[in-house]
Design a protein that fits this description.
Layout lengths: L15 H5 L5 H11 L3 E2 L1 H29 L4 E2 L1 H10 L52 H10 L3 E2 L1 H28 L24 H6 L8 E2 L1 H11 L4 H13 L7
Parallel strand pairs: 1-4, 2-3
Length: 260
């Protein structure tokens, strides 16, 4: 009897198991947005932001799972699996402001120098009561654990904290860019990366139809809509597979709601 080849893992694809999981609720998303703006956030915008964050975290978790399985064949993930996942896939390097606050990334972010050549000390943990992505990271713990379970994995507490922090910082940055898009009336810059061979001229940026549609904006500038979040996603993510998946899954998550 011929053995059947193992099916490749469909990491990042819009599978039913991933799409059915909604670990980051619209109320949590709106709470993050309220930390950075007083603008109204539509339900479709909140759903889109939750979906994008879920897609990004899912890809990070799957990358960590592959790293752990290749080294020790274990399901309980540790911070070193996160480092391995980011090393293998530059698209996963998101929420980097968290790196300065996590022991996992100590020594990996490099030493910073000021204009006089003096080493800039690492930022201290803020004791301010003002909400921030770092202070509010704990809000994502339940969602992160739910997402880990949906991917058939568990993680040590240190990695859960890292995933909390990355999710919080990423969503906060996404919210800030969505606000900028809404105020500027559309997407004004494109974060597309084009590989170029040494010595070859850099080609002009090519905009596909979906990006062209996001370059202009309709509606008032007092409400953040779904398309504002999609435009912000193109700023936050590199022009690769992760970005396209995030946009596709966000559109699917909001297909039964208005785009506003």
């Amino acid at each position: 009897m011929t053995a059947q080849p193992a099916r490749p893992e469909r990491s990042g694809a819009a599978t039913a198991s991933v799409m059915d999981v909604c670990p980051f609720t619209p109320s949590l998303v709106k709470a993050v947005f309220s930390d950075v703006t007083a603008m109204h956030v539509s339900r479709s915008a909140a759903l889109a932001a939750a979906s994008v964050t879920r897609t990004v975290l899912t890809e990070i978790i799957d990358g960590a799972r592959r790293a752990g399985a290749e080294t020790e064949a274990r399901k309980k993930l540790s911070p070193r699996d996160l480092i391995s996942a980011i090393d293998r896939n530059v698209e996963l390097e998101v929420g980097s402001k968290w790196y300065d606050h996590s022991p996992t990334f100590k020594g990996l972010t490099g030493v910073l120098y000021d204009a006089e050549g003096v080493i800039v000390p690492a930022p201290r943990r803020s004791r301010s009561r003002r909400a921030s992505a770092v202070v509010g990271a704990h809000r994502f713990e339940a969602g992160v654990k739910k997402l880990l379970r949906s991917r058939g994995a568990t993680a040590v507490p240190a990695l859960v904290r890292d995933l909390d922090g990355i999710a919080s910082v990423f969503l906060t940055d996404l919210a800030r860019d969505a606000v900028r898009v809404a105020r500027e009336g559309g997407l004004k810059r494109f974060g597309t990366v084009a590989p170029v061979m040494p010595g070859e001229p850099v080609p002009p940026p090519l905009l596909n139809d979906s990006l062209r549609a996001l370059s202009t904006r309709s509606g008032d500038r007092r409400t953040i809509g779904r398309d504002d979040v999609l435009a912000a996603t193109t700023i936050q993510l590199f022009g690769g597979n992760l970005r396209q998946r995030a946009l596709t899954e966000a559109r699917e998550a909001t297909q039964h709601t208005s785009a506003g």
